[in-house]
Amino acid sequence: MASYDLVELWLWLNLEMVEFTLHQVFVACLSQVMTKSKAMGIHIINEVTEQIMTETLYGDSRRLQQVLADFLLICINFTPTRGQVVVAASLTKDQLGKSVHLAYLEISITHDGVGVPETLLNQMFGRDGQESEEGISLLISRKLLKLMNGDVRYLREAG
Question: Most CB within 10 Å of its CB: which of 51, 80, 141, 157?
Fold first, then answer.
């Protein structure tokens, strides 16, 4: 069994399922990246609606916070000084019964600059055997998302 398979198994066995709001996750996450963003003069803009921020969700809020903080930190690292990072989200729900809904949460992070280097993206998607510290962090974050029935996409747009 590969070492990444053992990490996945350990993480899956340790997912903590609790009720939380996205607001709680964002507050904790932003406190983790605020020092670095302020030092670089990078403004983090929260475009998540109040309705989504206060929606009660059920899942592993600590892992979601870790993933979001990792992705924000990478974006901050590759945003020029005095640039901006924008966080947005959408939420859709499917009804599974009278009181149970399955929520689909999509969080997007956009930033100024040339983007995340291709080598780091390859590491995140497990296509490069020479992972850096940032690459391992992104790879683990992606695996955590997969354990929570999610995934990550990276889109590079002109401008």
Answer: 141
